Amino acid sequence: MARSGSRLKVTWYQTADGVRTPIEGLFDSLLGKSCTPQSWSDSVTRCTPQYPTVDTYTEYSDANCTMPILESETPFPANTYLLSRYAGCGDQTTYDHLYTPGAELTLAHAYRKNGAECDTDSNPGEHFYSIVDAGASTLVTVNMNYDATGAVEQMHWDSIDGMQWYRPEGRDSVLGAECSYQQVGDSAGICDPRTGIATEYRDASCLTPQVDVPAGCTPAPYLRSAPSSGCANSVDPTIWSVGSLIPPGPRPLYVSNGGVSCTAQTANLTHDFYYVSTTQAGTLQPMTRAYVTGAARLQPFFLDTARGVHYQTSFFYDTMLGVECAFALTPGTSYCQPKSNRDMISYYGPALFSDSACTVPLHDVVQIDDNPGCALSPVYQYVQKMTGVGTFEFHLTGAQHTATVYQSTSTQCVRYPEIGIPQSWRIFDYDPTVVPTSAFVSASQITDP
Prior knowledge:
Among the domains are: 107 residues, no CATH class; 120 residues, no CATH class. It contains no helices and 38 strands. The strands form 6 sheets. A 15-stranded antiparallel beta sheet has the order 4-3-2-1-38-29-28-27-26-25-17-16-15-14-13, with no helix packed on it. The two termini are 17 Å apart. The protein is globular. The protein is mainly beta. Strand 35 and strand 36 form a beta hairpin.
C-alpha cells in the first residue's frame, strides 16, 4: 500500500465505511501543488507539478534577441512557477528548467526570433518579466525501484522523505523488460512488456513487420499484434522482439487492415526503421484478478502473481449493485461509477429507424462497440450517456435490440449497417430514467497530513 513521506503526500478516495484507494499523483505539501514523477534533462526524475509551461527563448527585450524575457497577457500571480520543456522521444515530454517571473519590465514591445533574424513581435503579450531560474532542486527527487518478487517485479516510486507510491507496472525479469498490468477477462491479468502494436510491414503482402520511431529514439524492445478476436480485454499471445536498425535505403511501408488488405503508405523519412522478428520471443507473465471480500459494500480488486505481487487496482466490486465500479476524479464528492470494459456510447450518428421506410425513429437505444461474437458482461446493465463536456448520466440497459435497424440517407432508407459490411457493434434499449448518483457509493478526497 502507498504511504506518504514528510513532504510528498498520498491523496485518497475515502468512503464513509472506511474503504480507500489512492488517487493518481502525489501532493507536494511544501509547494501546495499536486505533482507526478517526470523526467528532466539531467536524467533525474522529479515530482513535478503541472505548472504552466513556457518556451523561454521566444521573447526578447533587445533587438539582437540576446536577452530572453517572459511575457503574458495577464499579470502573473504571486508565487508563480513555470516549466520549460522540450519534446522527448515519441510522446514523452522532458523538462529542463523551473522558472519564476522576476521584476515586471516596462517595454514598448518585445522581439522574437525568426530564423536567423530578430524581428519586432507584432502581437506580444501585455506584461513582460525578467526570468529567475528557481532551480530544479526546488522539487523532490523520486526514484524508480522494484520489489524482487519473481518473474514479475512490482514497480514503485520512492523519495528520500519516505514516500512510496505503487504503480500498475512492473518488470518482467525473464524478458528483462518493463511491463504494464492489463486485465484479461474478469478473473485474470498479465504483465505486458509490449509497448506498441506492430502494424507496419516492409512487403506488399504484410508478412515482414517493421517499426519506426523518431530519429535518434530507441524503440520498445517488444511489440504485439492486434488481438485477433476483437473482444474486450482479449490479448494476442504473440510477442515480437524488435531487432536492429534497418540501414539507410528504400523505405517501403505497408499497413495491414486486419488481414483484409495490405495498403502502401508514405514512410516518414525523419524516422528510423527497425527490423521486427516474426517468431515468438517469449510468453506473457500471468496474473490472477479477484476482489477481496469484507464487511464494506465496496470490495477492492487486486492483481496477484504466484511469487508475491499484490497490487490493488482502481476497481471495486459493488456488492449491492453487482457491478464493478471506479471513482472518477471530480471536484468535491466522487462516486464509484459503474464501469464497462468496452466503449459504450449513446447513439449520436445518423437517425435510426425501425421500419424500412424510415418513418418510425428509434428512441432510447445505446450503441455498444464490440464484436457480436464476444460474451456479454453483467456490467452492461449500466450505460454512461454523455450530457456535456466531461459530464455523464447513468441509465439501466434493457435487452439487446435484435430487430433490423434502418438508416436514412440523403437519397434512400437503407439497412444499417448495409449488407456486406461487418457489424462491429450491437444496439441495446435503455431506460430513459436517470439513475441518481445516490445509488452509488460516494467518497471524499483526502490528503494525508
